[in-house]
Amino acid sequence: MMQENKKFKIVTSKKTRYLLPNILTLAGVCLGISSIKFSIEGNFTLAVTLILFAAILDALDGRIARLIKGTSEFGKELDSLTDFVSFGIAPVFILYFWELNNYGKLGWAITLIYSVCCVLRLARFNLTKIEGREEWKNNFFEGIPSPAGGLLILMPLIYELTNLNFGLEIKNLTPYLTIFIAILLVSKIPTLALKKISISPKTTVFLLLGIGIIFIALLFYTFETLLIFGIVYLISIPVSIISYKKQIKKNAEKISEDSHEDIL
Length: 264
Description:
This protein is mostly helical.
């Protein structure tokens, strides 16, 4: 009796759900590397657009993995490596070929400082463990996340790519902004993550409407919309600090009440 030929499988049928998130992650790293290539050629419009797409994929892959129960340790490590390439190397290299190279050795030093801060931030993120009683901390990042940092340092270039003209020489702020964002990456300043936010069915329609408006704005006014997002995000940092402190106080009061009840 002839043996049935075994079919070649990349993963077992039970683990196919792990493929999609990892495919999105790998697509993100390809976009990040490609953005460097286009920045070398001087096509900064396409380079920034690819970073935007990489950020969108980065936001999707983790959520899709959790939705289809396709999370894995491999996917977590792959995501961090991809983030370093797409948001720790690519954006600052785009800036280097656009403006930082005019500062000579100092410009290259700033490029290295940003990349080092990004990899340190990602390493710390991978080691962060949140206890059960502090599950509310899932709604906050420690320091700004690398995708946000990658887009924020590109704000001077994004401004140059818009049709806006306020008579400001934003380009001169590039080295200072890059160092400032690098410090925020490794800082312990809490920033909003919004991972565990529950949405009522009544507000779902308005949420979808808002997402649709944002998509249309990005489609027709890409760089203007990115610039507004960057400014709003920077403004949200003080708000997140206040919210974080309130949550700490609230959690401490709850623990105190629980301890008091146990004693009684």
